Amino acid sequence: MTAPGAAGVVPGPEVRLPTAFGDFAARVWTDARTGAEHLSVSAPGADRTAPDPAAPLVRLHSECLTGDVFASYRCDCGEQLEQALGLISLHGGTVLYLRGHEGRGIGLANKLRAYALQEAGADTVEANEQLGLPVDARDYQAAAEILLQMGLDRIRLLTNNPAKRERLEAYGVHVDAMVPSEVPVRAENERYLQTKRDRMNHHLNLLRAHPVQQG
Length: 215
Ligand SMILES: Nc1nc2c(ncn2[C@@H]2O[C@H](COP(=O)(O)OP(=O)(O)OP(=O)(O)O)[C@@H](O)[C@H]2O)c(=O)[nH]1
Ligand SMILES: [Zn+2]
Known about the structure:
Elements: E1 9-11, E2 15-19, E3 22-31, E4 37-43, E5 57-62, H1 65-69, H2 77-91, E6 93-98, H3 108-119, H4 124-130, H5 141-149, E7 154-158, H6 162-169, E8 174-179, H7 190-199
The structure holds guanosine-5'-triphosphate and zinc ion.
Guanosine-5'-triphosphate is lined by residues 62-64, 75, 77, 80, 101-104, 106, 111, 114, 124, 128, 159-161, 164, 181, 196, 202.
């Protein structure tokens, strides 16, 4: 329990982070409630003193060790992260990398248990249910607090998930628009993405990188 008035998230120093996607400024934010160390990665944007500038682009990226680090094709996370870093390097904005969100909040071990159930036929929703775990246990309070401390109270959110927008807005961050965060579908993640579209209400077109061969 955080004492009344105490900061929920505590910022560390800002450091330079030169990457394959461009030069960013990075900062760790420690959640005083959970100990989770979140990372913001930001690039400067267009002149915000111009009349009616577009709100800054923000990607709230839930940690996915298999996708982000090992480039797993079971999900779309790794490619979404790369796409977001490229866009934000170009247009300015922030990627907020949310620790403790692994497996939609159930953790890595349970995510791999869910994968085993998916290999036995369950979809991504059924697998969590069979484990007796929530389908999506993520909370966005720390994310909202970090954005508000960064002065980002009005943003454009890079996401396909309308529930993410609603949950963030409930904590006081206004989302001007959802900017699609869609990457081409692959044979390995097609069922997974279909389930997100059909059972979790994600806005997905499921476009393929290459047209399906006919005949
Ligand atoms: N429980 C579970 N979690 C998964 C599975 N595949 C990926 N994840 C986790 O899902 C999280 C990403 O959530 P998604 O539902 O893919 O997407 P989102 O963040 O809600 O929406 P976008 O902003 O559009 O990416 C990451 O933490 C992944 O580790 C799975 O099959 N089961
Ligand atoms: Zn993933």
